[in-house]
Amino acid sequence: KVEMTGMPELVALFNGFGGAASALVALSESWTYIAEGRIEPTGLDLYVIVIAAGLSALVGWMTLTGSLLAMYKLKGGIEVFGKWIKTPTWGPSWLNPVKAILFASVIALIYLSINDLGNSDYLWGIIAVSCLLGIVLVLPIGGADMPVVVSLLNSLSGIAAAFTGFIINNSVLIIAGSLVGASGLILTFIMCKAMNRKLVDVLFKSFGGSTKESLTRTKVGSDAEEVAMMADGAQKIIIVPGYGMAVSQCQHQVKEFADLMTEKFGTEIKFAIHPVAGRMPGHMNVLLAEANVPYEQLIEMEKINPEFSDCDMAIVIGANDTCNPEARTGEGPLAGMPIIDADKARTVVIIKRSLSVGYAGIDNDLFYEDKTMMLFGDGKKMMNELNSAIKEL
Predict the structure, then answer these.
(1) Has 321 been annotated as catalytic?
(2) Domains and CATH numbers, the chain
């Protein structure tokens, strides 16, 4: 049983399994041709099957290894013999030519296999190079770009299925795979647009960095009673959910807080939804919908940002990179990424376990501003304490 916090990793794993399933079907059909020496059909139909098998292997195995690496990146690492090994983010400039060479190698192997159908060495070569290509493509990607990678891998799993449909002459598989591939690509481009990125940049420019800043600054934390007193006089509060809300599973406590403020003080409550908050597209929408938060209260980033200047209080729950003012400087892993303008609210409350950096690995200046109140602790515990304090007012 997978908890909601593990859904991004599960989605990435399913993408990989989808690609692997298509690649295995292609492998089975190709091996049948090689083992039986069957050269039917002939002519153009044969070329179509061989090319489709090669492309299915390329996309399928690349999707499998890329998805597995993405899953462990989202998880943060892997435990081997009781020792936790952190998943690296590594992308030197010379890695891009390597990607091009690997891709060209697969295409060359597919071409060579057309002229020598009985040679299984080409088949194993395609599989090996495709697996390596999947790792090399995902390895440099980090930071806030992981939701884009998950969307792209979802699309690739559909494309692999479509190629497999040509091999086994199954129109349903071709249509279904094409729909999954097209919808995944559309979602990928939507995510890229929301992050002010180009897909080529995400794949080849290594946004996200491999190192995390060491923290030297400190901030004195506040308590729930103090925050409750500040919220008492607020006419408008905007809640900014992040991955920390998913980790602590406090969406129901957040809904309770919104109801308390509306019923007791008549406070206007809205939720600012960043398109890449969390670890997969729509992560925050799913969590808040589970808690029965009215859909009309969930406002997209572009529409909610102008309202922060008139907002009495912004409550940031487990978000970091998506509201980091560093993104406006044009430098670093978050350069150019649109953010939630939580720092423009009159008072900012941040619920977070510590001052630790986010997934992009950089410190957040918002934590240290005079108007910022830090509630250090587990999201669910802090929200329960805040709700109790409000009830006592």
Answers:
(1) yes
(2) 4-204 (no CATH), 224-392 (3.40.50.1220)
